[in-house]
Amino acid sequence: MQKKYLIISIYFLLIWSASTFPIAIAQNAHSQHEVHSDATAEKSFKAELSVPDGIKQEEPFKIKIFIKDDKGETVSDFDMFQEKLMHLILVSNDLLFFSHLHPEYQGNGYFLTDATLPSAGGYTLFCDYKPSGDKEQLSVLQLGIKGEAKPSNSTDIITREKLIDDIKVSLSFSPETVKANKETNIIFDLKQALDNTSVKGLKPYLGEKGHLVIIKKSPVFTSKSYIHAHAMKGGEDSKIEFMTSFPEPGLYKMWCQFDNKGKIMVADFWITVKH
Ligand SMILES: [Cu+2]
């Protein structure tokens, strides 16, 4: 029991410190879907977060993110990837809230975006960027809102079918039993709820048929908790298919984003990955 209390205390200390001091904790690593083949020494980068004191639930605030290299020097040139200079995935630590933001580059290594968070509690930011001439980087940042958490209207029920607006989303896997470290196809099948016909005419979203973010439920998130996959090309119009593998057994949350008639939809599902 003591160990459990220690972990909980560290966790709240982390949330408290992240909300008290403007600069939060950053971890750094390459995103998982990239495969590196060169043997040259890799430069490392870090993101620093600055948010106002006393963020309140449901009130917009500004998120500033500074990118620095391993010597603490400002990084000022970035390459566009997936149509943006930075992709920011912001989730509540219970993984019930998800937001995909694109902070605007302000120069001098500094990105800015507005955000609104639904409830008090801890949040994690997965910050994806590509310094010019370097590889895509993923930095993980934390922030917290003090106060009493409001109950979420999302749930953590494990289901394979969901109604998102007027679209029925059915999830399937191949192979059917999802195991850690095994290549897995993840298929989202989209039907019009009204008449059960296949959805037609999806538009590309950030250059792809769909984007899939997967995060492993963990007491504290690291870059290893995070997977970002792009939809496979071709196939049926109404099926968005991804191929990935889960690094460890456990409970994961997935968010599939796609563009239906100009509206970006998010279909979220929990998945248990076995040994
Ligand atoms: Cu993005």
Please summarize what this structure is:
With 275 residues, the protein is mainly beta. The protein has one helix spanning 2-20; strands spanning 27-29, 45-50, 61-69, 86-92, 98-101, 104-105, 110-115, 121-129, 137-145, 161-164, 167-174, 184-192, 211-216, 226-230, 239-244, 250-260, 263-273.
What keywords describe this structure?
Immunoglobulin-like, globular, 2 domains, five-stranded antiparallel β-sheet, binds copper (II) ion, mainly beta, 275 residues
Structural commentary:
There is one protein chain. The protein is mainly β and 275 residues long. The protein folds into 2 domains: 21-33 and 47-145, Immunoglobulins (Immunoglobulin-like); 161-273, Immunoglobulin-like (Sandwich). It has one helix at residues 2-20; strands at residues 27-29, 45-50, 61-69, 86-92, 98-101, 104-105, 110-115, 121-129, 137-145, 161-164, 167-174, 184-192, 211-216, 226-230, 239-244, 250-260, 263-273. Strands 1-9-8-4-5 form a 5-stranded antiparallel sheet. Strands 2-3-7-6 form a 4-stranded antiparallel sheet, with no helix packed on it. The chain has a 4-stranded antiparallel sheet with strand order 10-11-12-15, with no helix packed on it. A hairpin with a 4-residue loop joins strand 6 (104-105) and strand 7. The longest helix has 19 residues, at 2-20. It is globular and about 55 Å long. The two termini are 26 Å apart. Residues 5-39 have low confidence and may be disordered. Bound molecules: copper (II) ion. Copper (II) ion is lined by residues 82, 84, 87, 100, 102, 206.
